[in-house]
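Researcher: I'd like a candidate sequence for this fold, 146 residues long. If you have to choose between options at a position, lean toward the conservative one.
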């Protein structure tokens, strides 16, 4: 099944207020998060046992990462993720050459459990730089009917 380009269909959504407040605490002063894109959760993305999210193929992440981060992504780049409720998670972020996609791992299974995420839900992703100048993410998960 071909992946749907939700950016074209939906555009950039409003960021949840709790997420925005937490990002403002973590981000470099005055930096606005960059909209990365949306993705519908597919079967494997919703499996707690796999504990990973394959990010959209058409994302802007390559443009947002520095050269040394692109090198580290081949192994693991440790990053923070802020969810729609403002909770901060520690994630592994790397690149899977076989899929030509970026992937979130480690605490993603806990995010699935917290929100009860199922196949068909929508994930909205923003990227920002922490005060330590590391890439971090805002990720909102929502039921498609909300």
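Model: Candidate sequence:
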């Amino acid at each position: 099944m071909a992946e749907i380009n939700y950016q074209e269909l939906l555009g950039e959504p409003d960021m949840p207020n709790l997420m925005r407040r937490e990002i403002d605490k973590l981000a470099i002063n005055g930096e606005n998060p960059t909209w990365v894109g949306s993705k519908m959760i597919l079967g494997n993305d919703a499996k707690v046992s796999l504990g990973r999210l394959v990010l959209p193929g058409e994302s802007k992440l390559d443009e947002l990462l520095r050269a040394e981060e692109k090198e580290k992504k081949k192994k693991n780049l440790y990053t923070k993720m802020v969810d729609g409720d403002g909770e901060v998670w520690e994630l592994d972020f790397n690149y899977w050459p076989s899929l030509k996609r970026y992937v979130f791992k480690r605490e993603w299974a806990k995010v699935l459990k917290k929100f009860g995420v199922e196949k068909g839900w929508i994930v909205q992703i923003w990227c920002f730089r922490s005060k330590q100048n590391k890439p971090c993410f805002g990720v909102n998960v929502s039921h498609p009917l909300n």
